[in-house]
């Protein structure tokens, strides 16, 4: 289901844009103006130094710059999968805050012990840490000349949404929905290749429809033979932790969803099944069917 229609008219290509450096500068100002307390306020007026980007209404001339989209959705819903596919299709960087956290954990940096405790308990990482990691990632994007982005996992709190709103213009927020029993099975079936870092899922989900809801089938996403013996389970993918993550997410996400809904930027998309069934329907909801055909033919 969709709350609004959306259209992207241009072929995927990289465009130069001053917006990433401006966003980076503004986020650094906002981060430095706040204390380390999770409940501390943020001086959004600081964003005026970097200059918030001019609003680009839906239906704009897409050649002005690449898209700036956000993916919302519960842990395990498939944000990374679909954001990555759209990133490749549109030629913009996919920035997943979950990946940024895992990279920081594996780096054994100064934040690693604190992050490990938070992640293993299924809690949300503090706004300050997430914003700092995101700022560093945007700096790397700017250095490589990238423009536009698809954010995955940010914002998760109303405070993060307000910070993002203060420093840049988000064109569209795609909110992926999936029934909770399927979500739980997906999270428990996730596997990671310890060698190449590839993400797979061994869960085969086959849920019979009831109360007027259709059947749902989501086949497993199995690894290639050379990865099969190297699969590991993420430390936070236990049933207890997954249920806690879903509870925390549902509690924190409602204000964020309403924040973007009230601004006419929220596209709610219920996943009908696995990738083969859901991907074409998502492209249709985004009016990207022709775009996909052009890319395939190129």
TrEMBL record:
It comes from the Eukaryota. It is an enzyme of class 2 (transferase). It catalyses: AMP + ATP = 2 ADP. PROSITE patterns: ADENYLATE_KINASE (PS00113). Coiled coil: none annotated. One of its GO terms (molecular function) is ATP binding. InterPro entries: Adenyl_kin_sub (IPR006259), Adenylat/UMP-CMP_kin (IPR000850), Adenylat_kinase_CS (IPR033690), P-loop_NTPase (IPR027417). Its EC number is 2.7.4.3. Keywords: Kinase, Nucleotide-binding, Transferase. Belongs to the adenylate kinase family. Monomer. This is adenylate kinase.
């Amino acid at each position: 289901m969709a709350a609004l229609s959306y259209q992207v008219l241009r072929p995927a290509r990289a465009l130069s844009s001053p917006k990433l450096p401006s966003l980076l500068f503004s986020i650094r100002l906002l981060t430095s103006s706040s204390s380390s307390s999770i409940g501390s306020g943020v001086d959004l007026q600081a964003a005026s130094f970097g200059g918030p980007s001019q609003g680009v209404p839906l239906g704009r001339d897409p050649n002005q710059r690449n898209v700036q989209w956000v993916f919302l959705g519960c842990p395990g819903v498939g944000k990374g999968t679909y954001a990555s596919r759209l990133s490749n299709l549109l030629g913009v960087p996919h920035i997943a805050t979950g990946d940024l956290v895992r990279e920081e954990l594996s780096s054994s940096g100064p934040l690693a012990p604190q992050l490990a405790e938070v992640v293993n308990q299924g809690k949300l990482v503090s706004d300050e840490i997430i914003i700092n990691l995101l700022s560093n990632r945007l700096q790397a994007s700017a250095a490589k000349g990238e423009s536009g982005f698809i954010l995955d996992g940010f914002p998760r709190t109303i405070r993060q949404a307000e910070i993002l709103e203060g420093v840049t213009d988000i064109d569209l927020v795609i909110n992926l929905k999936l029934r909770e029993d399927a979500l739980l099975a997906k999270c428990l079936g996730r596997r990671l290749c310890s060698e190449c870092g590839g993400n797979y899922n061994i869960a085969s989900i086959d849920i019979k429809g009831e109360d007027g809801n259709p059947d749902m089938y989501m086949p497993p996403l199995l690894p290639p033979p050379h990865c099969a013996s190297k699969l590991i389970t993420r430390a936070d993918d236990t049933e207890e932790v997954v249920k806690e993550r879903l509870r925390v997410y549902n509690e924190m996400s409602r204000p964020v969803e309403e924040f973007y809904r009230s601004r006419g930027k929220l596209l709610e998309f219920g996943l009908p099944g696995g990738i083969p069934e859901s991907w074409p329907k998502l492209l249709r909801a985004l009016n990207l069917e022709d775009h996909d055909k052009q890319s395939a033919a190129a």
